[in-house]
Structures are given as structure tokens and as C-alpha cells.
Amino acid sequence: MKPGQFLELAYFGITTVLFRRKDPLMGSIILTDRCNLSCRHCAVGNITSVIYPYSRIKADMEKMYSDGIRILFLYGGEPFLWQDHGITLRDLVMEAKRMGFLLVNIVTNGTFRLEVPEADLIMVSLDGGRDSHNKIRGNTYDTILENITDSLSDNICIYMAVNNINKGDIETVCRTAVSLQNVKSISFNFHTPYPGTEDLMLTRDERKDCCDRIERLIDEGYPIFNLRSAFPYIIGNSFMTPCHQCIVMENGKQWTCGRCIEIPNLCSQCGFFFAAEFSLVFSGHVRVIFDMLRTYSRYI
Predict the structure, then answer these.
(1) What is the mean pLDDT of residues 106-115?
(2) 110: which of 124, 224, 240, 287 fits an S-S bond (Cβ 3.0–4.6 Å)?
(3) Residue 74, beta-bridge partner list
(4) pLDDT tier at 237 (50, 70, 90 boundaries)?
(5) What's the 3-state SS for 43-59?
């Protein structure tokens, strides 16, 4: 991260805490819900399979930027399936950079070639070792590792959603990540139990065990992107929801924090680490603030 970018984000954070503002900083755009996979834990893929046009995506990016959002995530479905009359995902990333977004990130299942060097992070889902991952996402493990290995980009973050199937594979994923030259960092979430996926949810004790293990891995030097100071709040879902600094847009519609806000009681079971971390930072938790400054300067 360049010094100017860091200062702009720091200014936002300081003024938000001091003046208790609720302005958004991090935005996610759903480019399409079309996906080439049918993952066991997913409840939002292939509902419409609509590829939203470039004009719609550009308008959503422009609105986010004008609202003060400076960290952008591009999501699906599978975002690498998005294209409109020859305009590709890579073109969207470059467009977002031209608009002035400070950080532009992609979240992908990793089954397509990962050639978007302009992105600050390409977050690639790897949900366990080969057996657990393939049980959740189909026979894709080897394809994903091959695409990571073959990528010319070194901006890849392994992204694991921990659930009842793969909870024993946290260490395996970390060891795999550091064996891959192009992987910069590792990020964890807990499964959020969308309707129909409740059986994959972790108990509080299981969350604590996972967080304890992730802390040990941080101590061992693994490049983990999560904030250990936020773990006690994530374990008990005791952070403030929704996080007003996070916005999601799909086809012109906007939600605070995430689309799950419309599902009764789901916020109280949130497993999204970023939402918890940002909520705690902008609520003025000093330890989490310093942890974020240290961690983000290392991996972004």
C-alpha cells in the first residue's frame, strides 16, 4: 500500500471513530450470481444466472466511489464468468483503479486462470485439503492449485470458509498456501448458516478451537490476514451488526453490510471475519485498530 493510500484510509478511520460516523468504506459488487460450481455451503449461486451489463456495473462502481467507498471487492457467483461484449473482469479492475479506488480485490473459486495483476488481492477459495475441499466444492482442488501455480500474479490470498466438514483442515490449508510461491496471505471465515446450510455451522466451542489454532499458526509465522484481537468477538458474535462501513450492491440494489441482513436472525450468526473486524475498528476498539494497521501494512 502506498503512503498516500494509507493516509487516506487512516483519515477515514480516525474521523469515523471520533465523530461516530456511519459512512461506508468497503464495498462489494455482485457481478453475477452465475457460477460453474454447486458448492455445498452456498445458498446464493445460480439463482438467476444473469450477467449484469457493463453499464450497470460501472454505474454501481461510480455510486460507490461517490459515496466515499475506497476498498472494492468484485464478487459472483463466479466473477471470472463475467464479460460483456469483450469487456472482461480485468477491464473492470482497471476501470475501478482509474476511478480512484485505493484497493480493488477479486473473490473467486479459482477454477479459471488468475491473470489480473492489476488487482490488489485475488482471493481464491480453498476449503481444506483435497478430500474436504472436493467434498464441499466438487473435484476442483487440483485445478485450483494448478491455476495458482501457473499464475503470473503474486497477489493471491487463499480464502477458507471453515465449517463442519473442513474444520480439521486449517493447518493443512496454511501449509499448502506457504508452499505456493504466488500466495501472499491466508484469510479465514466461519460458515454463515444461510437457509438450507445450517448443518455446516460451527458451535461456539468449535469456533473457539479454530481461533486458538489460527492464533498458534500466526505465532508460527504463517501469513494470516485475519486480526487475532477480533477473535473473542467473532467466537461469540459479540460485535456490532450490521457493519455500516461495509456495503453490498447487486444490480443497483444496495444493502448495508451484506445481503444476509434481510434474513431474520442471520446477522447474529455471522461468520464473516472482515465485517466483524471493520465493525470493531470503527467502534473504536484500540487493540483491533493497531492489529489492523500492522496486519494490513504487511499483506497489502
Answers:
(1) 96
(2) 124
(3) 29, 106
(4) very high
(5) CCCCCCCCECCHHHHHH
Q: Which of 114, 107, 118 is nearest to 42 (CA)?
A: 107
Angle at 157 between CA 156 and CA 160, to 5 degrees: 140
> For residue 262, what is the DSSP state?
G
> What is the total count of domains within the chain?
1
Query: Which residue shows C-alpha cell 492489476?
Result: 118
Range of 65's domain?
A: 3-299
Residue 48, beta-bridge partner list? none
CATH number, domain of 272, equals 3.20.20.70
Q: Do 204 and 235 touch, CB atoms closer than 8 A?
A: yes
In degrees and rounded to multiples of 5, residue 174 shows phi and psi of -65, -45
Tens of pLDDT, residue by residue over 169-215, are: 999 999 999 999 999 999 999 999 999 999 999 999 999 999 999 99
CA distances from 58 to 86, 88, 92 (A): 15, 12, 8
Block residue for cell numbers 466483524: 276
Higher pLDDT, 4 or 60: 60
Find where cell 445450517 sits: 198
Q: Where are the alpha helices (DSSP H) in the chain?
A: 3-19, 54-66, 89-99, 130-137, 141-150, 170-178, 204-219, 231-236, 273-282, 286-299
**pLDDT value at position 294?**
87
Question: What is the average pLDDT score of the chain?
Answer: 92
- Classify strands 246-250 and 103-108 as parallel, antiparallel or unpaired: unpaired
pTM over 0.70, yes/no: yes
Is residue 233 within 8 A of residue 265, CB to CB? The reply is no
